Amino acid sequence: MIVGMSQLAPCLLVASPMLLDPNFLHSVVLLVEHDEAGGMGVILNRPLPVTLQQICQESRLAFTGDEDATAWRGGPVDPQRGIILVRGGLPEAEDTVLDFTDFISYRKDLLESLLVEPRSTFRLFLGYAGWGAGQLDQEIQEGAWVRVPLNPEWLMPEDPQELWPLAIQSITG
Predict the structure, then answer these.
(1) Concatenated DSSP letters for 53-75?
(2) Which residue spans traverse the membrane (predicted)?
(3) pTM to 2 decimals?
């Protein structure tokens, strides 16, 4: 089952160079959900200065992955909420399928299993970007965001600082 699909989601939103809000300056957002009530996504290019190992220690969760792996700032809303972007594996009915290999999940049991599987490929986002009813549509019309199709190669960039310039270049040619 594909949850949260709409005319816009899933897709990527690239912040316009004119968007100066510090929460979204030079950001690329994975738009996960969008409907008449609003939208929700995660910022793909904002690593946090905290490792997954530190988060797991504070949360009393087991962790056997890369000790340098970081958590990511998903957005300014609800920074205690964890959202997982997973590559590979089988999504459950409540997960949001993005493409053939990637999905979004909010399940703590899935996070716990990913944290102890060193070969798993995932990103843990804390917080999210949210828009109220009609807000995102208006911001797109005003030129704050450019909608681009989902690009799986951009979902987990090795160098997050290069994602926004790459996205801008893909738009402007």
Answers:
(1) HHHHHHHT----S-TT-EEEE--
(2) none
(3) 0.93
Residue with tokens 């993005």: 98
Q: Which residues neighbour 161 within 8 Å (Cβ) at sequence distance 6 or greater?
A: 45
Residue with tokens 């087991």: 62
Task: Give tens-digit pLDDT for 28-59.
Answer: 999 999 999 999 999 999 999 999 999 999 99
The token duo for 122 is 């995932």
Q: Which domain holds residue 20?
A: 11-172
Question: Each residue of 96-145: pLDDT tens digit?
Answer: 999 999 999 999 999 999 999 989 999 999 999 999 999 999 999 999 99
- Which tokens belong to 150? 């989902």
| Residue owning tokens 């160079």 | 17
- Domain presence at residue 58: yes
Give yes or no for a contact between 9 and 34, defined as CB atoms under 8 angstroms apart: yes
Q: String of b and e for 67-87 (b: at least 16 CB within 10 Å)?
A: eebbbbbbbeeeeeebbbbbb
Cis peptide before 160 (omega within 30 of 0): no
